[in-house]
């Protein structure tokens, strides 16, 4: 089987915020968070979910670890495009709102949800584009590996991806990415050619070996940055 390169949107910035908040300590939403949730609701009404809504409760109960379900953000937002991510990041930065980012919700650590803040759920960033001639795949960070492998199978392609079908693409690559193919092709992140990033000020850019190589290195090294990645490109293998 051939392996493809991957291009994938992935929010790399917010993974520190939730981990600094104790899992079992409820907090009262502060004014900045209320401003964020209100501003996001007014601008992106179909993408923002408040406590008690069906989508909020659904997202809260689809984490792999039960303790993450008990963490209650003030609102959840589900960006569908890179432009959505840009607006969300600009809003969160403007009001200094604590936030967390969820790709697949499979990790055991606290980075995918936040008490009293804003949680970004990347489930709608689920693009899968196979460019067979170029040997590239573009993925959204909201994909799970079951969907990625199914989309690549008709092309007789595979990649250095997750070992479990329910693992999210975003968290897998930000964590380096240990695969059944790693002994031949390294970590998953070693096979990424390009990150589409959204900086904390809303700027959208591409980071790769020749353009913004510092951000490319930071994203590949699992360093915590102030940039979010809505798309990623990697190369397949045979």
- CATH fold-level topology of the largest domain: Uridine Diphospho-n-acetylenolpyruvylglucosamine Reductase, domain 3
Q: What are the low-pLDDT stretches, counting only 5+ consecutive residues below 50?
A: 1-26, 223-227
| Gyration radius, rounded | 17 Å
The major β-sheet equals: 7 strands, mixed
Helix-strand makeup class: alpha/beta
Overall residue-averaged pLDDT value: 80
Write down the overall geometry: globular
What keywords describe this structure?
single chain; 238 residues; alpha/beta; Uridine Diphospho-n-acetylenolpyruvylglucosamine Reductase, domain 3; Uridine Diphospho-n-acetylenolpyruvylglucosamine Reductase, domain 2; 7-stranded mixed sheet; 11 strands; 26% helix; 23% strand; globular
């Amino acid at each position: 089987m051939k392996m493809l390169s991957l291009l994938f949107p992935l929010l790399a910035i917010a993974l520190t915020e939730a981990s600094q908040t104790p899992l079992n300590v409820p907090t009262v939403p502060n004014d900045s968070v209320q401003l964020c949730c209100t501003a996001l609701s007014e601008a992106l009404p179909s993408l923002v979910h408040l406590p008690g809504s069906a989508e909020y409760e659904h997202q809260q109960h689809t984490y792999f670890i039960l303790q993450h379900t008990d963490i209650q953000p003030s609102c959840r937002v589900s960006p569908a495009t890179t432009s959505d991510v840009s607006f969300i990041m600009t809003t969160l930065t403007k009001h200094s709102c604590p936030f967390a980012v969820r790709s697949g919700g499979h990790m055991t650590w606290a980075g995918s949800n936040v008490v009293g803040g804003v949680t970004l759920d990347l489930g709608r960033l689920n693009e899968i584009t196979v460019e067979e001639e170029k040997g590239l795949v573009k993925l959204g960070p909201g994909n799970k590996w079951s969907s990625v492998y199914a989309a690549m199978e008709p092309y007789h392609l595979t990649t250095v991806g997750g070992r479990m079908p329910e693992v999210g693409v975003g968290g897998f690559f930000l964590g380096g990415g240990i695969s059944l193919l790693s002994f031949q092709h390294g970590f998953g992140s070693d096979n990424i050619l390009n990150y589409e990033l959204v900086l904390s000020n809303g700027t959208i850019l591409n980071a790769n070996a020749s353009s913004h190589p510092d951000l490319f290195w930071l994203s590949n090294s699992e360093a915590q940055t102030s940039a979010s990645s809505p798309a990623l490109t990697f190369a397949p293998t045979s």
